[in-house]
Amino acid sequence: MKKLLSYITAAALSLSLTGCMDIEPVSTITDANYWKNPEQVQAFNQGLSSWMRSYADKY
User: DSSP secondary structure string, 12-39?
Assistant: First the structure.
């Protein structure tokens, strides 16, 4: 009986916390929230170029 109560409690808690998982991340850059204007594309390209140069210097 204790085991059944534990399973029911765990299921109820996990189902009640699903609303917390629908939050859009603020600090993550995604296609939906980044590619809005040409300045963002240019900033991405500059960052990528810098990363590639630093990677090439390692080898």
Answer: HHHHHTGGGGGPPPSS---HHHHTTSHH
Predicted pLDDT at 59: 67
- Kindly state the helix (H) or strand (E) to which residue 48 belongs, with its residue range: helix 38-58
- Integer-rounded Cα radius of gyration of the chain: 22
Question: The whole model's pTM is what?
Answer: 0.44
pLDDT digits (tens, 9 = 90+) for 17-32: 766 666 666 667 778 7
Domain ranges within the chain, ordered by starting residue: 28-59
Contact between 35 and 41 (Cβ < 8 Å)? yes
Gap between the Cα atoms of 10 and 19, Å rounded: 16
Structure tokens belonging to residue 2: 């204790």
